[in-house]
Amino acid sequence: MEGPTTAPTRRDPDEVGALALALLPMGVLLGLDPGGWYPFGPVKWLALVVLGGGGAALVLWHRGSDLPRPVGLVASALVAWLAVTAAVGRDPWFAWIGTPERRFGWVTWALCAALLAAGAARPRARVVVGGLVAAGAALGALTSLEALGWEPPTFAVASRLSATLGSPAYLGAAAALLGPLTLGVALDRGLGRPVRRVAAAAAAGLAVALVGSGARAAWLGVAVAGLALAWGRREALRAHRRRTLASVGVGLAALAAVAVLTPAGARAAALLDADAPGGRGRLDEWRVALVTAADRPLTGFGPEGYRTAFHEGVDDAYERRHGRDEQPDRAHSAPLDVLLVGGVPGLALWAGLLVLVGRRVLPALTSGTPWRTGAVAGLLAHVVGQLALFPLAEVEPLAWLLAGTLLADVPWGGASQPALAEPAPPRTSAAPARVQGRRLAVALVVLGSLLAVDAVSGVVADREAGSAARALRRGDTRAARVAAERASARRPDWPRTGLLEARAVVADGRGIHRGLEALVRARRWSPRDPVLVRAEIALLVDRALATGAPAHRDEAQRALDDRLAEDPRDGSLWAEALRLAEGTGDRAAAAQARARWEALTAEERRRG
């Protein structure tokens, strides 16, 4: 006689959504494509769109929105206002979807707000927080291996540790957010032993990441969070004075050892070096950002618009010290970046959101379960670190998701819930919240479907661009041209594929004119992109010198004059003006261009 059969269990949408949100940290922190030209970007964007947007949609559809009303109103107002600034911003396309390098257009702000709402919708918190811990453990393990000498070619992007983030600063930001959380989970005796062991390993690995990344913004954030935690728990520390003094002594000894035995000490000392990246030169960046922001205090320049307006705040002193070898596109300070993106109203809404969330979650620094205290400390470290960095599409969504989870754990005006408690059943009485959540879910599905197509095409185009770049390096110009043309055709809106196609067709002997055509097509999507503008001018000068035709010389001169009228302090433009004048025998123009070029690049040439 056969035994009873068990019907297969079906996962409800809430559980699937929570699982997607749990996998999100893995996707955005660990995702990479070794075959891509930019291996750390397109795959992470795909993970954010599919796992973040899809998971948030499922959770909100099933559970509704539990965001405290003031938080929800301010978050919605921020997203709505940034839509306005995107519509009137300086970049008509990337203001919405974000540049392929940064990916922090309006849609990323909207996804962050959706993740905040999804975290507060009380999904299965064990699953969501467990995903953050697991991602921290994996990231810490990979970073530790890199510190021990295992560095695949994909990781070799800087002298400091970067792991799967592609940037030491990004790695430090991730470690600052997740390190305190994993430490809190490891110390929480109310949780299971396996989870605590994984969290302990994660905390150790993330400590390596924090130190080895040399990310001083992250160090500042963790230091402030530690001091805030010590102040909040000062009564308990006084009650155990000897243990506290011993811990402080061990901590100071550890810091001294790190400063002496690792490059961290030299990295900290470089803050006083005006020539070092991120040293006193950061003050110059902030000064330029403030001057630029003053031109459009109401709406700012829209998401991703600062790179097109940066030159408006540049003075001779900045140009002499730093030049334009790397085009600045961020102010390296979150408040300034938000001001540039959304003007004074955007900054006020963003700051108001921080205050509303902070007022609710910060008390956990003084009283709360260890995992919750660690999570709040991680958020505080993240926010403080952003004062010297900028919002990252790889890290910021995780911070908003974690903040939402913390808001759900303590009701607005109620008592604390058990740590990492499983959610209550879906509410049948809170009809408005359910309706609002389903509206958000539908909007996410529509937006996410479009973004998923964008993300998949981006991954494919980046792999084709990677093939082109590798072919160029080995001298196979025909293969490089074919692959670059495919990448550019697939993503004609990406400036970097247009630049790559221009390089490849010129290298393959197809003529400067074909290269100019590639740049013109790319500029249709972002007419003000400064890198494209400079590349086009350089090719116009090349063509004028190669052909000697008066029409080509006049076209190059007009392009130079137009751009120099808009950006008279760009040393690279004066170098092109000098090249054109010398090549055409215009001695007076050459003397003027040389004098201006030497004045603007003297310090940069002295250092390099």
Describe this structure as you would to a colleague:
This protein is mainly alpha-helical and 608 residues long. It has 2 domains: 13-411, no CATH class; 460-607, Serine Threonine Protein Phosphatase 5, Tetratricopeptide repeat. Helix content is 70%, strand content 0%. Helix 6 (125-147) crosses helix 8, helix 19 (431-473) runs parallel beside helix 21 and helix 23 runs antiparallel to helix 24 (550-566). It is globular and about 80 Å long.
How much is the average pLDDT? 86
Low-confidence stretches: 1-9, 257-261, 410-419, 421-429
The fraction of residues in strands falls at: under 5%
Order of helices and strands: HHHHHHHHHHHHHHHHHHHHHHHHHH
The level of helicity is over 70%
Number of self-contained structural domains: 2
Topology:
Layout: H1 13-30, H2 42-63, H3 69-87, H4 94-97, H5 106-120, H6 125-147, H7 168-187, H8 193-213, H9 216-232, H10 234-239, H11 241-261, H12 264-269, H13 281-293, H14 306-309, H15 316-322, H16 334-361, H17 370-385, H18 396-409, H19 431-473, H20 477-490, H21 495-507, H22 512-523, H23 530-547, H24 550-566, H25 571-584, H26 587-607
Distinctive features:
disordered N terminus; 608 residues; Serine Threonine Protein Phosphatase 5, Tetratricopeptide repeat; mainly alpha; 26 helices
What's a concise summary of this model?
This protein is mostly helical and 608 residues long.
